[in-house]
Amino acid sequence: MLEGKAVVGETDMLEAMQQDALDLAAKALDFFDVTDSTQIARFIKKEFDRSYGAGWQCIVGTDFGSFVTHWCGCFIHFCIGSLAILLFRGSTGQETEADDQFPPLKITAA
């Protein structure tokens, strides 16, 4: 595992869900080499799909950009050492009524 504590950059998740994300990242880093970002991302994504429903996406790496649409309450970006992790539940704007528990977040540029 990478040395250091997780530093949360941006999130709109509830504390309990944030802690799940951080715990799963630490667990993934125990299982996989830090250079195996695809396996780390797959592990975190599959665990969140199982715990919180389908549609989660996970990006792991040391240098990436992103522009995503996500469900309100379902986004976190954090770093552990030099490794950045972006975890979010994707949104297309065409979800069913069953998915209304997490409505899409409306963001306007300043």
UniProtKB/TrEMBL annotation:
SMART domains: Dynein_light. Gene3D superfamilies: Protein Inhibitor Of Neuronal Nitric Oxide Synthase. GO terms for biological process: microtubule-based process. The keyword Cytoplasm applies. One of its GO terms (molecular function) is dynein intermediate chain binding. The keyword Signal does not apply. CDD domains: DLC-like_DYNLL1_DYNLL2. GO terms for cellular component: cytoplasmic dynein complex; microtubule. Keywords: Cytoplasm, Cytoskeleton, Dynein, Microtubule, Motor protein. InterPro entries: DLC_sf, Dynein_light_chain_typ-1/2. PANTHER family: DYNEIN LIGHT CHAIN. Belongs to the dynein light chain family. This is Dynein light chain.
